[in-house]
Design a protein that fits this description.
The chain is α+β, with helices and mostly antiparallel strands and 220 residues long. The chain is built from 5 helices and 10 strands; from the N terminus they run αββαββββααββββα.
Length: 220
């Protein structure tokens, strides 16, 4: 008796299976969060540029599907809005952000403060019952407390605006996450404020105010 050999069909099936695995792995790797390229605040429509103090603050909401695809989770369907904060320091001295207070105020005067990573994890692990869609599939991996995958935890922490200071002639950027659950139109008529920005002498700069209509008119 001769030993049995694999049929051509079996070998073909094996090759196809391996090809699919390699392709899936490539897609999986592509889901890893990467911060968008950093451009000066003056490149964005929604900006408040203090030309006398030579510091500019801009925001860029990630409310549209094509923009939000950089994340592995559909935060909007969980009632969370990622907003990118961009700060440009064109002065010759460093700017301190350790005391900064960003606030999003809706048209109905609801004040929204940025969520902490732990706040976001709680929402991801225990989404409230609503008619919203479930989040997009979350990549498999090591689970952490609350059922959150490690990759999602890494994504949230990597996305955060974490700069404590802005060096001279430098731009820093990162995301703030706001809880907009129950707010049907969080951007229309809203304003973004930021206080607590200090110059190299420790003096607080004039507060920054950005009407969201600046962004919406461009997005349309």
């Amino acid at each position: 008796m001769f030993p049995k050999t694999r049929s051509a069909g079996s070998r073909t099936a094996a090759v196809i299976f391996l090809t699919i695995c390699v392709f899936a792995s490539a897609l999986w790797a592509a889901k890893e969060f990467v911060q968008p390229a950093i451009h000066p605040a003056q490149s964005f429509a929604a900006i408040d540029d203090h030309t006398d103090e030579r510091v500019a603050v801009a925001i860029d909401p990630y409310d549209l599907q094509d923009k939000a695809e950089i994340f592995s989770v559909n935060y909007r369907d969980l009632g969370l809005l990622p907003v990118r904060l961009i700060v440009t320091n064109d002065s010759d001295d460093p700017v301190s952000l350790t005391a900064m207070k960003p606030t999003l105020i809706t048209v109905n005067k609801t004040k929204l403060m940025p969520l902490t990573p732990d706040d976001i994890f709680r929402r991801l692990s225990r989404p409230r019952q609503s008619d919203r869609k479930l989040p997009l599939p979350i990549p498999q991996g090591k689970k952490i407390k609350g059922g959150i995958k490690q990759q999602v935890r890494d994504e949230v922490e990597a996305a955060q605006f974490s700069a404590q200071a802005i060096e001279p002639h430098t731009t820093r950027a990162g995301f703030l996450f706001f809880d907009i659950q129950g707010i049907s139109t969080p951007l229309a008529g809203a304003h973004f404020y930021m206080t607590g920005v200090r110059n190299g002498k420790g003096d607080e700069l004039m507060y920054f105010e950005i009407p969201l209509e600046k962004y919406l008119s461009t997005a349309k």
